[in-house]
Design brief:
heterodimer; A: alpha+beta; Ubiquitin-like (UB roll); DNA polymerase, domain 1; 6 helices; B: alpha+beta; Aldehyde Oxidoreductase, domain 4; Aldehyde Oxidoreductase, domain 3; 3 domains; seven-stranded mixed sheet; six-stranded mixed sheet; 32 strands; 27% helix; globular
């Protein structure tokens, strides 16, 4: 086992300096070292999407990335995008539509949905379903989530015009 | 929605001004989950907390000859390494049987295997360390010497004399057998066309997104164990942990905050969880266990591994004359504890033919042991098997006599005015609505237009199918489910409500929340009955120290049983408040009402006193109350169904899909459900329960299967190879309701959590066969993978 190495990065805009084992993955670093437990771990092999975070503006699965690979990067988690208000409308739509039950997939689902809405302002239902197809939800059956994302897209589009 | 009959009272406590009953209101406290501030057990950390990982057997069946952990014990961070033999001194083994399932047998199961492992994934040693990573590092340095034994894997040969017996003390591999013979099946079949098929179901599992997780914290100074666990039944866990650790129940507290999915997976007692409780007691410090995904696949209960041969008799006029089934299921090496693994087969016997008037029914179910992971109750226990067999047979019968699948159901479903009545298996039905539900479904899906579209597309070589499935669902279980068999699993639930000093309401309920909306329905009921706005109702759940005693949330019981307890508790508190108000206002309780957080005159609605002012007087200036008044601003009520063992619900589903006959792929185009769960407390939550349930059933229909090889190795124990439904493959699901409230409670609510799962696979299978009818292919096996479909079409 290698010795800890130093790591500097921005997490939700806050500069972080840490010493971590090279094998530590980013999800565990966020959860265990920084106590940002909103990033959930569902499969630890990059399939379920519950650990989705944003790195330098792109969504990634934090269980498939080593913490040291985030050196110098800007990492945003569900806590960060909640506190900044960036996805307040999307969260409100999820609440109104009951687009979550147990809530375990929800942070990853919100990060992924926000990514879609940034890149594709008015996606149709099939496009929403395709984009969310890397995020497992075992509770809702997905329809309410698709509804909430669709409603948010429409509201944002109206606000722009 | 269609209302089949009025509730007991024309104006009940629910029909009040600003009632929340029947209204879609957002669940309270969702922001916590939406902002990543939930408190799941996997998030929990306690001071001095250690982490346990389990070394698990790579063999399906083997003798443990020796375990050498000496090298591992010397590794950095390792606190302790404990074998089954050592842990046996702390926690006693258990046997998963219930006395009302006559003849059910099982062998003693240990928290960690002693001398022998019986399935791939059974724990053989616990490694406790300062971190999970350190424990996993050490685990790799433990050497276990196994002597591999012959594995019993095929349930079809499990009872053959040549097959080894897994537990010699039991004599054979038969765990349970039940037979039933009602009416005169032989006579009925002798005068009918008979159709027969074998229905095969893939063994699958729940795949909760948060794996099973527990933190056990034994405080030696208090002689008390606190268990933080994602469980559906905290009081059951309390009872079992105390029993096997030699403690009184008062020495065990179970706390259950947010739970990342349950679906029946988290309502059982697992060996590794028991081991974690025991390790905490042994090591006198908090110990955390979080299953990883491979452990989840290998140790979370599996379900539905059934082969069921079915026969149906039908006359040319469409009359169904008889059902006959022979069901075989393999449950792994032990009957699960404490609910047992015989319940699913028992339910299959109970439910086959249930929607129909047919009086002639014969069934035999056998439950056998095998060296695979344990099977037990998963969402809609037995229902998908019974529904797929029944509805598959009905469609085969219709095809045999050339009758439309809808028409044969119209002619045989129990009529809506026939209640109360009983099924040939003895199930009692208070009020069902099969015909109203079917009529509504046909209208929603525009059945005739779909049939026309199907015919038109067939001429263009596009093969679409329509599948219909009627079903019944067991909800609101009474003590008949577990209590009568000797299990300490409560069928009653309790709710305590209290008016606080500022006129808000604190409510403690014994039902639990895993996302279904238990908190919401409780707040809606309490707020409505009391006349208090929902934002002033705070609900506490999931804590054996801080809620009344009760069963929890499983078997579609939360709304029907816990909801009625909430209603009765709120009624009692309301009366108490009005008594105090009458004393303060020199009025009479009957002359007053509570509306919008204030006491008003019952007749003209004039405001008299705010609830917060009333509470201020009661708590801080009781000296100003008239003599002899002792206000009770807290009330507790319990409820359990007594009249009916189960509150049966009913419904019907339809699937519209397309089969690509070149590739074997199925595209789900649309799905409809009409369901009757009695009084609807929150329409959105009911619909979302049904949608989620449908999608779990669609997973079983098309994707989900635990694939074992002949040596008992699970070959797809990861999320990449075990497929579950994803958003891109799922259809939109339209839902309608018929409302037949149960009269056994004032609330009138029955359950809705399992209706979707009960009938979805049957509807899809019938639709696939409908699509393939021009090819003369019939498939009675799920999951309907491309391989299964192409094989049936003779293409591979």
């Amino acid at each position: 086992m290698s010795a800890p190495v130093s790591l500097s990065l921005l997490v939700n805009g806050e500069p972080i300096d840490a010493f971590v084992l090279p094998r530590l993955n980013l999800a565990d670093f966020l959860r265990e070292n920084l106590k940002l437990t909103g990033t959930h771990v569902g499969c630890e092999h990059g399939v379920c999407g519950a650990c989705t975070v944003r790195i330098d503006g792109e969504i990634v699965r934090s269980c498939l990335m080593l913490a040291v690979q985030a050196h110098g990067a800007s990492v945003e988690t569900i806590e960060g995008v909640s506190d900044s208000g960036e996805i307040a409308d999307l969260q409100a739509a999820f609440r109104e539509r009951n687009a979550l039950q147990c809530g375990y997939c929800t942070p990853g689902m919100l990060m992924t949905a926000q990514d879609l809405l940034k890149h594709s302002p008015v996606p149709d239902r099939q496009a929403i379903r395709e984009h969310l197809s890397g995020n497992y939800c075992r509770c809702t059956g997905y329809q309410a989530i698709v509804d909430a994302v669709e409603a948010t897209a429409k509201t944002r589009a109206e606000r722009r015009t | 929605m269609t209302v089949t009959r009025a509730p007991a009272e024309s104006l009940s406590v629910l029909d009040r001004p600003n009632s929340y009953i029947g209204k879609t209101v957002p669940r309270p406290n969702l922001d916590r989950l939406l902002q990543g501030r939930g408190q799941y057990v996997s998030d929990l950390e306690l001071p001095r907390m250690a982490h346990v990982v389990f070394l698990r057997s790579p063999h399906a069946h083997a003798k443990i000859v020796a375990i050498d952990a000496s090298a591992a014990r010397r590794m950095s961070g390792v606190i302790s390494i404990v074998t089954g033999r050592e842990l046996e001194t702390v926690i006693t083994p258990w046997v998963g049987v219930l006395s009302h399932l006559k003849g059910l047998k099982s062998a003693p199961q240990h928290a960690i295997a002693v001398d022998r492992v019986c399935w791939q994934g059974e724990a053989v040693a616990a490694i406790v360390a300062t971190s999970r990573a350190a424990a996993e590092d050490a685990m790799e340095h433990i050497a276990v010497d196994y002597e591999e034994l012959a594995a019993v894997t095929d349930m079809r040969t499990a009872l053959d004399p040549a097959t080894p017996v897994i537990h010699a003390s039991l004599g054979d591999n038969l765990a349970f057998e039940r037979t039933l013979d009602a009416g005169d099946v032989d006579h009925a079949l002798s005068e009918s066309e008979v159709v027969e098929a074998e229905f095969v179901f893939g063994r699958h599992t729940g795949v909760t997104l948060e794996p099973r997780a527990v933190v056990a914290d034994w405080n030696g100074a208090e002689a008390r164990l606190t268990v933080y666990q994602g469980t559906q039944a905290p009081h059951m866990v309390q009872n079992i942990a105390a029993l096997h650790l030699g403690l009184r129940e008062a020495q065990v507290r179970v706390v259950c905050k947010d739970v990342g999915g349950s679906f029946g997976i988290k309502v059982h007692i697992y060996a590794d969880e028991m081991a974690t409780y025991a390790l905490s007691k042994l090591l006198r410090r908090p110990v955390k266990f979080v299953a990883d995904r491979i452990e989840s696949f290998n140790t979370d209960i599996h379900a539905r591994d059934h082969r069921c041969r079915g026969r149906i008799g039908v006359r040319p006029d469409g009359t169904i004359t008889a059902f006959e089934i022979e069901d075989l299921t393999g449950i792994g090496p032990y009957s699960m504890y404490p609910r047992t693994s015989a319940i699913e087969a028992n339910q299959v016997v109970n439910l086959v033919g249930g929607p129909y008037v047919t009086p002639n029914y014969r069934a035999r179910a056998r439950v056998v042991f095998q060296n695979k992971n344990v099977m037990c109750q998963y969402r809609a226990v037995g229902h998908p098997i019974a529904c797929s067999v029944t509805e598959g047979l009905v469609d085969l019968a219709a095809a045999k006599i050339g009758m439309d699948p809808v028409e044969i159901r119209r002619r045989n479903l129990i009529t809506d005015d026939a209640y109360p009545c009983a099924s040939p298996s003895g199930m009692k039905f208070e009020q069902l609505s099969h015909h109203a539900s079917l009529a509504k479904l046909l209208q929603m899906m525009d059945y005739d237009a779909l049939r026309a579209e199907q015919a038109a597309l067939r001429t263009r070589n596009i093969h679409r199918g329509i599948g219909i499935a009627s079903f019944i669902e067991v909800t609101n279980p009474s003590a008949a489910f577990y209590g009568v068999g000797g299990a300490k699993i409560s069928s009653q639930d309790g709710v305590a409500v209290r008016l606080d000093t500022q006129g808000s309401v604190i409510c403690q309920t014994s039902i639990t929340e895993q996302g279904q909306g238990s908190e919401s329905l409780t707040a809606q009921i309490v707020g409505s009955v009391l006349g208090v706005s929902m934002d002033r109702v705070r609900v506490t759940l999931g804590d054996t120290d801080n809620t009344p005693y009760g069963g929890g949330t499983w078997a579609s019981r939360g709304a029907g049983i816990g909801g009625e307890a909430a209603l009765q508790a709120a009624k009692a508190l309301r009366q108490n408040i009005l008594d105090v108000a009458a004393a303060i206002l020199q009025s009479t309780p009957a002359g007053l009402d509570i509306v919008d957080n204030r006491i008003v005159n019952a007749d003209d609605g004039a405001s008299r006193i705010e609830l917060n002012e009333l509470a201020r007087i009661v708590y801080f200036r009781p000296d100003t109350l008239p003599p002899g008044i002792q206000p009770e601003l807290m009330a507790t009520r319990h409820f359990v169904p007594r009249q009916y063992p189960f509150a049966f619900t009913n419904g019907v589903q339809a699937s519209w899909l397309e089969v690509d006959t070149e590739t074997g792929f199925v595209t789900l185009l649309k799905h409809w459900v009409v369901e009757d769960c009695g009084t609807i407390i929150n329409p959105q939550l009911v619909d979302e329960q049904i949608r989620g349930g449908v999608v779990q059933g669609l997973g079983a229909a098309l994707f989900e299967k635990c694939i074992y090889d002949e040596r008992g190795q699970l070959t797809n124990a990861n999320m990449a190879d075990y497929l579950v439904p994803m958003s891109g493959e799922m259809p939109d699901i339209d839902i309608g309701h018929v409302v037949s409230p149960t009269l056994e409670s004032e609330l009138g609510a029955k359950g809705a959590g399992e209706a979707g799962t009960a009938g979805a696979a049957a509807a899809v299978a019938n639709a696939v066969n409908d699509a393939l009818r021009p090819f003369g292919a019939t498939i009675t096996e799920i999951p309907l993978t491309p391989q299964v479909i192409l094989t049936a079409l003779g293409r591979i």
